[in-house]
Write a structure and sequence with these properties.
The structure is a single chain. The protein is of the alpha+beta class. It has two domains: 134 residues, Fructose-1,6-Bisphosphatase, subunit A, domain 1 (Fructose-1,6-Bisphosphatase, Chain A, domain 1), CATH 3.30.540; 117 residues, 3-Layer(aba) Sandwich (D-Maltodextrin-Binding Protein, domain 2). Strand 8 and strand 9 form a beta hairpin. Helix 5 runs parallel beside helix 6. The longest helix is centred in the first third of the chain and has 18 residues.
């Protein structure tokens, strides 16, 4: 790829390679897990991948936001920040379901501009930047060109489906497939392997920053439930939800999701 972010992309690929080596030491489905506050599982693999990502990616002058690192709010003063999830889909990893990934996002002034996602179970790798597109397993990829919601393959959160949150959409036009890891779902949309994905429940920036960068890099769309551009590196890195899909599906999807969208936040909320 020819890109202003060629150094960033090279670091991402090196980090993914290092993470792949760590994942090879573990057998999904035969993993010991602990539980953090909120009943989220965490494993030895999460921590090991976090350490190697930080060592491989971070340079002086850059910020760091990771699910598995103590948050250093000094990142708020940085123009360039890494937003990563060492293992998105830990529940699937623990259960041996092949829907988990390492997720590496790079943001500039809050805008996701480059990312890499690797699923070690399926050996799928997605890498891209906003000025050069997306590579899927080393080959150029683009988003869905579908223009109608009828039959659109839509990737849903397995846990959201289980809780009944997708009931309003089950008898509609979408072809819904439940799966784990929001980062992996976004990556699949960026490469045209699915038409749409959305989550109407809160997510952390590290869950979605890399996937959002890939979706934008591919020419697809991504936005928050407030019909706003997704931005990262806030003091409180939690967003209400996220919508992403092929470029021609934005308007019909927003119409379908109308009752579930939210008013724009007040300007008084501030940047950080």
């Amino acid at each position: 790829m020819t890109s202003a972010y060629s150094d960033i992309l090279q670091r991402i690929e090196t980090a993914i390679s290092a993470a792949r080596e760590i994942f090879s030491r573990y057998t999904p489905g035969a993993i010991d897990a602990e539980f953090k506050a909120g009943h989220d599982p965490v494993t030895e693999a999460d921590r090991a991948v976090d350490a190697v990502l930080r060592q491989t990616l971070l340079r002086d002058g850059e910020g760091w936001l990771s699910e598995e690192s103590v948050d250093d709010l000094g990142r708020l003063e940085k123009k360039r920040v890494w937003v990563v999830d060492p293992l998105d889909g830990t529940r699937e990893f623990v259960k041996g379901i092949p829907e988990f990934c390492v997720s590496v996002g790079f943001v500039e002034d809050g805008r996701p501009v480059a990312g890499g996602i690797h699923n070690p179970a399926t050996q799928e790798t997605f890498v891209g930047a906003i000025d050069c597109g997306v590579l899927y397993n080393g080959h150029p990829a683009g988003p869905s060109t579908r223009a109608s919601l009828q039959g659109a393959l839509t990737l849903a959160s397995r846990s959201e489906v289980r809780r009944g949150e997708w009931k309003p959409f089950e008898d509609g036009p979408l072809q819904i497939r439940a799966m784990g890891s929001v980062a992996y779902k976004l990556a699949l949309v960026s490469a045209g392997q699915a038409d749409l994905t959305f989550t109407l429940t809160p997510k952390h920036e590290w869950d979605v920053a890399a996937g959002a960068a890939l979706v934008l890099s591919s020419g697809a769309f991504v936005q928050t439930l407030e019909n706003a551009e997704f931005r990262a590196n806030h003091r409180h890195p939690l967003i209400s939800g996220l919508i992403a899909g092929g470029p021609h599906l934005r308007d019909p999807l927003l119409t379908l999701l109308g009752p579930h969208l939210r008013p724009a936040p007040s300007q008084a909320a501030g940047k950080r």
